[in-house]
Amino acid sequence: MLAARARGLGTTFTSFHLFFEEDAAKLLGIPFEEVMQTGLIPVAYTKGVRFKPGPREPVGTIVHWDDW
Fold first, then answer.
1. Is the pTM of the predicted complex or chain greater than 0.85?
2. Cα(31)–Cα(49) distance, integer angstroms
């Protein structure tokens, strides 16, 4: 993903296609009965090059240690 970004390509990790895993396997030529898919990384040219970090919650609001 970093190498693609260095070449002006955008990527993202997704597992949404797993709702249609068998169809995706057939489309991509993956032997469905032998290989378990866990993710897909689409690669494409982007509309722009102004990338920035996405909005994030403060870590203290989402991480809990020995309590909830």
1. no
2. 36
